[in-house]
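tokens incoming
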């Protein structure tokens, strides 16, 4: 359900008339060459579209207005090959509503030491042309990513692709819809928040549905739909014997498939991109949706448990950013700790709802009792996430702003097999260490629910937070609690201005 190739980014080159037609032709040729290289790069996830070189305030304003109105345009890459007097950019930047990145590059990588003359100097002016552009962006308080380096450099293209993926997630959220079945888990604070403000800030809307609305879809699921899903489960998972046809719990698996069929139809019919459930509101459902939630997440839906719509929208955004990359992305919760002095670890899991995209190997499909919610035992996928780099991200509502917190972690192999743990899990060591990571997270007010990803780095989330105009706090290998506390205090002052 996520296809980044439907999106495009526009390459906008700034210049002016002073240089004459021949130089401007060369500028355009060079821009074409850069666009071609980006288009052919496997890293770049979207189509890169060349736009005619900009030499007047009118052409700049028109381009920005067109970008606002182009449904597939995620934003602009801006680059000043020559000097583009930046007062020409004021009107355009004032109206531009799409994100932009400032690519500070130069067409020629090397100085031609023995041949350099004034013609070369007049053409290759990014060193000062981009500074003029940088001034007006900063003077106008424009949020943008600045990427410095030669355009053929892999690191430059990687940074560009990260920004593009974040911009895809931003565009995906515009008009995006999150369905909420039931309300919040009663009395929980962090999963609450201002949905109107969130829609203004992020672009997605959150609307509630009585669980009965969902139940009526589930009741309409046909035997053929259920049979088809059961077949798919048998192909994709190691299904427990008692869940297979003829097994004593096979009817429970059919119930789970029925829930999946109904939930899927509900979400598809109304074009939702994410949803929430809550175990406190399951009237008319036989089980808490578990397997279906795990599988819908794997298909790209955002999800938050206990009514957590902010995390549902965040998981969706992270899935858009991570589309096609190696490694999975899931709803997650810091569940329980290993506090042995030889190596403190976090066991992340949830009651059921962890996305199978983070599974190492083929998941097991088993049925176990659920101690919360008072419903029938739900079948669920059980697996462990593979070792490697990962991160947890959260968005909390601070009352006057949204705050994103990201913690980089290393997923490790569990010390031992976990034969009695009936849920999917990931075990990790947070950076810089357990004490500082958990301490900083709690001081910052980070939620217990997160978006967990083994595909993304913190740079994706930072770009995403910036283009959405929200606060961003990073807990990584350099974090020191005393410095982090200062950052919290400074940010408090900044956002109170
Ligand atoms: Mn939870």
């Amino acid at each position: 359900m996520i296809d980044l190739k439907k999106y495009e980014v526009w390459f906008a080159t700034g210049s002016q008339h002073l240089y004459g037609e021949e130089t401007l032709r060369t500028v355009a040729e060079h821009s074409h060459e850069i666009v071609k290289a980006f288009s052919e790069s496997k890293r770049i996830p979207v189509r890169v579209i060349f736009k005619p070189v900009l030499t007047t305030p009118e052409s700049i304003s028109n381009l920005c207005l067109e970008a606002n109105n182009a449904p597939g345009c995620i934003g602009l890459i801006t680059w000043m090959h020559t000097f583009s007097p930046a007062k020409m950019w004021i009107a355009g930047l004032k109206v531009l509503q799409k994100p932009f990145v400032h690519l500070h590059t130069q067409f020629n990588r090397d100085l031609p030491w023995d041949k350099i003359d004034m013609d070369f100097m007049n053409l290759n002016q990014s060193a000062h042309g981009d500074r003029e552009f940088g001034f007006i962006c900063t003077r106008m308080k424009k949020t943008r990513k600045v990427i410095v380096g030669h355009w053929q450099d892999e690191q430059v293209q990687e940074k560009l692709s990260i920004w593009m993926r974040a911009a895809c997630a931003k565009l995906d959220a515009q008009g995006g819809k999150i369905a909420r079945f039931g309300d919040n888990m009663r009395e929980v604070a962090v999963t609450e928040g201002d949905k109107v403000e969130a829609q203004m800030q992020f672009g997605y809307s959150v609307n509630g549905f009585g669980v009965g609305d969902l139940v009526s879809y589930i009741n309409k699921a046909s035997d053929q739909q259920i049979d088809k899903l059961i077949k798919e489960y048998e192909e994709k998972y190691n299904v427990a014997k008692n869940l297979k046809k003829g097994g004593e719990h096979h009817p429970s698996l059919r119930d789970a498939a029925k829930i999946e069929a109904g939930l899927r139809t509900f979400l598809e019919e109304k074009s939702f991109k994410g949803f929430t459930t809550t175990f406190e509101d399951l009237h008319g459902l036989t089980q808490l949706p578990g397997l279906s939630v795990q599988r819908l997440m794997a298909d790209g839906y955002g999800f938050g448990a206990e009514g957590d719509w902010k995390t549902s929208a965040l998981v969706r955004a992270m899935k858009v950013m991570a589309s096609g990359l190696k490694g999975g992305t899931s709803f997650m919760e810091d569940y329980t700790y290993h506090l042995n002095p030889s190596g403190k670890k976090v066991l992340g899991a949830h009651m059921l709802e962890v996305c199978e995209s983070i599974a190492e190997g083929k998941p097991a499909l088993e049925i176990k009792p659920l101690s919360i919610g008072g419903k029938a035992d739900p079948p669920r996928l059980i697996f462990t996430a593979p070792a490697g780099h990962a991160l947890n991200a959260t968005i909390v509502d601070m009352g006057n702003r949204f705050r994103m917190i990201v913690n980089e972690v290393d997923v490790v192999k569990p010390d031992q097999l976990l034969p009695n743990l009936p849920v999917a899990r990931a075990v990790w060591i947070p950076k810089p260490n357990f004490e500082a990571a958990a301490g900083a997270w709690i001081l910052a007010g980070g939620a217990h629910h997160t978006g967990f990803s083994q595909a993304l780095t913190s740079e994706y989330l930072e770009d995403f937070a910036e283009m959405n105009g929200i606060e961003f706090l990073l807990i990584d290998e350099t974090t020191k609690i005393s410095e982090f506390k200062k950052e919290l205090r400074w940010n408090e002052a900044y956002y109170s201005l």
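note: The CA atoms of residues 176 and 243 lie 36 Å apart.
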